Each structure stands twice: as structure tokens, then as C-alpha cells.
Amino acid sequence: MGRRFNKKKNAGSRKKEQRDPNGSYVEIVKENAQMEEYYKAQNLMSDEEWPLFWENLKVTLPTTFRITGTRSHAAEIRDTVKNAFVPHLTNISVDGVISAPPRPLEWYPDDFGWHFEVPRTMLKKSPEYAKFHQFLVAETEVGNISRQEAVSMIPPLLLDVQPHHWVMDMCAAPGSKTAQIIEMVHANEQPKVVPSGLVLANDVEYRRAHMLIHQTKRLQSPCLLVTNNDAAMIPNLKLAPNKDGKSVPFEFDRVLADVPCSGDATLRKNPMIWSRWTHGGAMGLHQTQVHILQRGAQMLKVGGRIVYSTCSFNPMENEAVVAEMLNRAGGALELVDVSEELPKLKRRPGLSSWKVFTKDGKMVETFEDLPENANGRFLPSMWAPKNVDSLNLDRCLRIYPHLQDTGGFFVAVLKKKESFVPNPTWRAGNEAASEEKTEEVTESKGEATESKGEEAAAPEGEESAATTGDKHKLDSAAQEDESAEKAKKPRMSRSERYGNVGPKEEPFLFLGSEHNDVKLISGFYGLEKEFPTDQFLVRSESERSKAVYFVSEAVKCILKSEDIDRLKVVNTGVRTFIRQDSNTPASCLFRVHSEGIAMMRQFCSNARVVPVQMDIMTILLQSPYPKISEFPEEVQAELEALPTGCCLFEFDPALEKDKDRPNPRWEGQGITGFVKDKMIFPVWKAQVSFNMLLNKQERKSLAMRLGVEYVDAPHVITKKDASGDTPMAEVDAEVDAEEAEGTEGTEGTEGTEGTEGTEGTEGTEGAEED
Ligand SMILES: C[S@@+](CC[C@H](N)C(=O)[O-])C[C@H]1O[C@@H](n2cnc3c(N)ncnc32)[C@H](O)[C@@H]1O
């Protein structure tokens, strides 16, 4: 019997080598006396518990992942992990070390969240783990598994999203939580019904908004709208009437404000924070966080829920923000008691008292005690308000790493009881006159790890708190200082503040049911009457636009708003049809895109659908452009009779004779019946040959799931097909390029890269959450 794998041994070493953002190796010392003193002063926990908490922060985070997708499909993957892999990963010993097998996160519903913890040597030296790893990587590539930090899965679960909800994810990139929300909107999907819910996912950084698009693409949701606005200034829009002629307001049933934060609760994942943490980190973020939460609360429907979350332990970014919001709402918002929700999630209550320190580490009891020359950027809202005991801040959730071997997190769930006009000057009436004191605005951008807009995010009608005169009762001397400061420092442009603003977006143009292309498509694929053909759009003014997208009715109401120009929409719609230049005479040159096929199948007549068996699947997966003569004789006549153009091949594993055969790919693990779901994919019939219209990754995944040996098929991407048609992938690539124009780095989104390691988060900026 070997020894158990010792977490502390693995990562608890105080010194570790890491690459800094410039790629050079630096030694990380997992200590920070300032930080330790600061958090000890916050009384987060008892003295006995403190060492457990503190030491645990030095231990590398285990890997966690979420099984994604529709329920039946996710259940299939979960059962495979549970029944086929876990039993073989128990008591595996490498170099005398035994590691615990993967296990479900006890609080995640239906065992769709998983935790596993193996050193890399284990993955390399144990064939069982190598197989599991291979499986995880392959399933991650096709989007059935998503690497996501356990704690990052909590806010969407507490949002309690229903399929009909309109949800706004205000700070959404890179998009792990957005993906979870989209799945919730699509839960309980009914055939032939496009969900009435909506997910508006926003991020102020253009480049990150594109990471978000990349991350959510696999979900193929017509209900998703990606925007690139400052969350504190999401505009009011007058929406176009819906199908019933009703005007719906631009407001949301659920709002997630997963705000930019100092990120010190991600220390286990981002050890660089040990050396970077300073008292100033949270200071520059507090105000932005209040503004974002306030805008979210304004856009929330009465009765709706808003979840506020950070990956910071700092009360200045957490309870102080929530308390300020509750007071600004004057009783219209309340904290929800979620102690009965996710009962197995271990949590600690929010704080009702906390301490504020100056940048040079001096504790200041109250705002009034702040010395004139205090170093830092202070607002009265950073201290606990006088009415703190009436706010139920204990209903907030503090997640500490040592409780369940996770990262740290803060979550507050608020409910809107009635509409309100936020009152940023509430203190003047409710607290003993507390004059705001400004301070030198010396915030360095680098200190606030993910402060993308600390000074700017004043919501409409409210100036930046630290720059406001009468509203916040700045004394005149302070105002003068402020003006002088402003005069010295020209207002930053949007691109200076948030990075590349991106090119001007192409318009979203609805084709309308009477458009010739829509009529052609409807006739050729036999679209049923109930299909909303007025929800197709294109993104090019050209007569012959290449890609046709489909959006839900809710998205259409927004895009058709008369003030849509105020919202910077960067992406929406499922790519459904592609115009294929072809020499093959076909009555419709629009092919179904694999992204839109599952949805379109529900509404297409059977005329273009061909049921196929395993032998045909194998031929299509293994031969380039198979000719009709290469298929089994008994199906040749049927294939010959198919009119040219795009058709949908449907494979139903339940109809296969040997449906329970072990999948050769996982042989030895004893996996049987690996594939249960029907598969549908587009195929182009040229005059004498067929071509599966799937990209390399999709083919690879299909081959794996069927247990067919994968044959790399470069022809799919590069070669002209037998009839001289423009290769499908070339057209796809053109459309991709059009969509992604001006974006760099949409690949490599964290969380999509297999399950190896936990390092490599973009820029190692503390708050880079996944
Ligand atoms: C903690 S991360 C969000 C993580 C994300 N919710 C997820 O689960 O993948 C914070 C995000 O807020 C964005 N951000 C910062 N300031 C913002 C602002 N004023 N408005 C909107 N987004 C902002 C950052 O670009 C960053 O992507």
C-alpha cells in the first residue's frame, strides 16, 4: 500500500517558480505580511481556524470541471465518468503515491460538477489516468466538458434561472458563468420551441467580449446576445413590439454582477498575487463595483434576483458594496436568505463589521477619523454604515478555500421588492453628517488587478463619487484639488481605459419571411409553418450575403429597438445556413451549418433527412469524398436518387444491432452503450460523391463517440471536392473571418484547454475568473 498523495507536499512549498507575465521565471514566496495582518484584523474566523485558512491558500487548487450541454447528453457523459472511469481510477499508485479518484462536487446538482486532483506525474505514468485525461481533453474540445473553478459555478446556481427568464450577465468574459446560464435557459427544452428566455452577456473589454463569444459558441443558442458596454452604463432601450404587438420593457428577471475585483481569493490559482497584494488593490475598485451593482439593480424587474459576486475576500469589495447598494435602494432591495439553497455547500456568513486601512497600512476606525493626508482614495461607503445591523449582511456567502478544498468567493443574492430611484446621497439624510473627504487620486492602475474602469463608471445621472461636488458634499478645498487633478489628467478615452474598442460592427439585418433566400430555404428544407422565418438575419448589406443566422424573438425585439445604436452588440445568432458556391446543379445552394443543425432538424420536413447506419457513418468518417459506388450496394440506389445539395444524415444508435458493443476507444474500461443520443449532421451530395460537412474537431469527436478510428482528413478543409465545388471549409473560414474581424486571441480561452493544470490564466491578473 503506498502513501496517500499529500497536497501540502505537492504545492505547499513556500517558494515556487512561476513565469511572470513577461515570461521570465520569478520565485514566488507564498507569504505577504501586510495581507496577513489585514485579514487577521477583519476577524474572518476564530484564531484556531485561521492557520487552516491561511496555510490552505498556499496549496495549489485541484482541477474541477463541469459536464455541460443538454440534460440527456450530459447524463450520458456523467455516467461514463462515474461508471466507466472512476472504478478504474481507485487505488492507482504511481511512485508509491496513491491519489483519490475523481469525485462529484457534493453540492453541485445531479453530479454535473467534478473535482479531481492528480499530479502531472500520475497522468504521465498511469495508463488509467492517461486514458481519463485523453477522454477529458477530447470531450472538452467538443464542449461537453468545461473546466471551471468550483466556486465560479456557485453564482449561476444561486441565480435560480428559469427557461423563460431574461438574464443579464453584466461582466461576463471569459464566459464560464454565461455558459452555465445559457444551459439553464435551454433546460427542459421542448421540441419545436425556441426558448422565450434571453441571455445578454456583456463585457467592457472588446477582446474579452470575443473570448466570451468563443466560449459560448458551442452552445449554439439563438437566445444569446453579446454586448460590449460599460456595465455601469448599460443604456435604457425602447424595445420593438413582440409578436403579439406588445412592447416589453428592457429589464431582466435575473442579473449577474460578477464584477472586476482584486482577486485575492484566487491565490491558490494565481500565486503571483502573493507578491502583488497591497492595501490599495480593493480601494480603486469599490466605486466601480457599486456603480455596476446599482445599474444591474435598476435594470432588474420587481420580484427579480440579482447576484453580486467577487473572487475577493475583501469586505471593501464585498459587504461594503452590498451595504451601500441596500442603502441607496432605501429598502427596495433585500438580501435573500439562501441558507437552504445548495445545502451541501459549506459557507460562512457575511461580515457586519470590518476595518478600513490606508494604503500605507494604518487602520482607520471611521471615515470621520481619516487624517487629512491619508494615503488612499476613500469614500464613506467603504466603512460599515451605521445601520449595518439592519441589513442582514450575514445572508451573504463567504466561501473559504479550506472548507471544501476550493478557491475563495463572495456571493450576495438580492431581491428587488419594488422599483426605486437610487439615492447615492442617502447618507446625508440617514447618517450623522459625514463629510466626504477626497484624497489625492494617486491610484496606480497596476494595483487594482482588474480595475478596468475605476473612475469612469458613474452611472447616468450620477457623477463619480470622488469627483462629485455638492452631491457628496465635498468641501470646496477638496473640490479645488479635484479640479486641479482633473486639469492635469485629461479624461481617458474609452480605448485607453478598456483597451481596443474594436471595429465598427456590421449591422444586424433581418431578412423577413418574404425575402427570396428565406423562401428558397423554407421550400427546399420543408420548414414547418410554425417556424419563425422572420427571425433570420444577415450581417452584410450585400445581396448575396454568405451566412444566415437565426435569433430568438426576444433577441429580435432588442435588435429592432429604435435606440439599438446605444447598445454595442458584438455577436448574436446561430449560424444556420451558408451559401455554398458550387458547380453542382442544386436547387438550393444554402447548406445547413453544423451549428444550427440540431435546431433546424426539429423544423425540417423529412424530405432532406436520410437515416443512416453505422457502416455509412464509418465510410463518411474514414474516406475523403466517398463515391456512391463505395457505399454498400443495398443503399446505393437510394443515395443515387437523392437530389443534389445539402441533406441531413441522421444516425440513431438505438437502431444498431450491436448498440451495446464496447467502444473500442475505451476498451478495457468496459464502456458499453457509450452513444445513446441521435446524431444529425449535414452532408453535401455532389453529382457522384458525398462530403460530411463537419470540421476536423467535430469529425474527431464523432469518430471517438462511435468508436471508429479517426482518419485525419485534410481534404475536408483544403481540397476541392470531386465536382469542383468550393471547399466547404473555405467558405466557413471566410464567414469566420468576417465574424471575427479585428479580434485577436479568441482562441485559448481559459477553461477550454483540456484539464491539465490550473496555471496559465490569462495575464495572471488576479481576478481573471473562469
Ligand atoms: C471577474 S471577471 C468576470 C468573469 C466571468 N463572469 C466568468 O465567469 O467567466 C470580470 C470581468 O469584468 C470586466 N469588466 C471590468 N470592468 C467592467 C465594466 N465597467 N463593465 C463591464 N465589464 C467590466 C472585465 O473585462 C472582466 O472580464
From TrEMBL:
Name of a matching Pfam family: Pre-PUA_NSUN2
Annotated stretches, region: Disordered: 1-24, 422-500, 719-770
Comp. bias regions, Acidic residues: 731-744
Bias type Basic residues, positions: 1-13
Keyword terms: Methyltransferase, Nucleus, RNA-binding, S-adenosyl-L-methionine, Transferase, tRNA processing, tRNA-binding
Location of the active site: C311 (nucleophile)
Keyword Hydrolase: no
Name of this protein: SAM-dependent MTase RsmB/NOP-type domain-containing protein
Species per Swiss-Prot/TrEMBL record: Lunasporangiospora selenospora
Source species taxonomy: Eukaryota, Fungi, Fungi incertae sedis, Mucoromycota, Mortierellomycotina
